[in-house]
Design goal:
single chain, 380 residues, 7 helices, 16 strands, 28% strand, DNA-directed RNA polymerase, DNA-dir_RNA_pol_30-40kDasu_CS, DNA-dir_RNA_pol_RpoA/D/Rpb3, transcription, protein dimerization activity
Amino acid sequence: MSQQAVTGYPRNHVQVLPERIGAVANSDIPGHYPGEDHTWNLERFKKNMNLRVDRLTPSRIEFDLIGIDASIANALRRIVIAEVPTVAIENVYVYNNTSIIQDEVLAHRLGLVPIKVDPRKVKWKPQPTPDLAETANDENTIVFGLTVTCSRRPNVRRDETDPEKLYENANVYSSEIKWQHKGRQYKHLTLPRPLDVPDDGEEHLPQDGEFDEPPKPVLDDILLAKMRPGQQLNLLLYCIKGIGKTHAKWSPVATASYRLLPHIEITDDIPPEHALKFQQCFPPGVVELEHDERTGENTRVVVANPRLDTVSREVLRHDEFKDKVRLSRIRDHFIYSIESTGAYKPEELFPEAIKVMQDKISAVESCLKKAFPNHVPRSD
């Protein structure tokens, strides 16, 4: 059986010979058929590789990555989740905690609070050594303080029962976590010189003319603890750089996933009397009905936007459609969805993952050159 396909983008337009029509369900992948040559070719990869941003919000990005192998697509997804570094609370020093929540539980809750600070401006903290027990400094550690005391508000009605109205600081939120400047940290983080830091005479201006925001929690309304009059918290929080593979608190994303682009192929005419039913078998926007000159009505079925399809295969439940449609997916067209926790802008996460992968490849290449010095490929 011979097959032919149109190559190049868009990949969802595929020509299929008549002998391929009629399958009820299939595992064929459009654009890739037996007998085709899919060996690696750099020039072909450059031609077919494409990235297109479909939606961008302050916390989420959705984009299409086209023309790469599934192994690379999944490797980048895993790197985004587990190996792109961020800054998170690692050490909690409790000077006073008379609230109802235990020290270790409170420390765990604090560690999961996402911190808004550019990880690229914070150095990795080295592990302590026997001759150097503490390695924290103003370049690798961000310090926060949390000092809150609960008290009863004056002049409150005697019959009032709402704790928020009765007490001051009844609920302790992440907005109470305050950054404490250390050393010359304002220079490393591109911040204005604090008023309590003497001028050292060196010019300190950002390259782009704008200073960054001081380190703080990404969200101000994360509930940390509940307190009542007489209870208080006095904590010191040390933040360091880490990766999600070590602990989930360092993961820069709330979710990072991808799916393959659905491919819906109408292999035979849909009768006008069944057009509306066929359209209703798919999510809204996937199939549209256009004007048909033969009937004079909107009965011509057209696949408008296959990316909205959830691949429910509902259409195959109906006998009148089983031999008229083929459902598959395009194996090298990945629809990514990445939601940032706030340390990075969503559009920065994927490039950071690519940088991590490049570092991994460079490390492997260096090891191979040392292990096989006589088999180093020529640079030309």
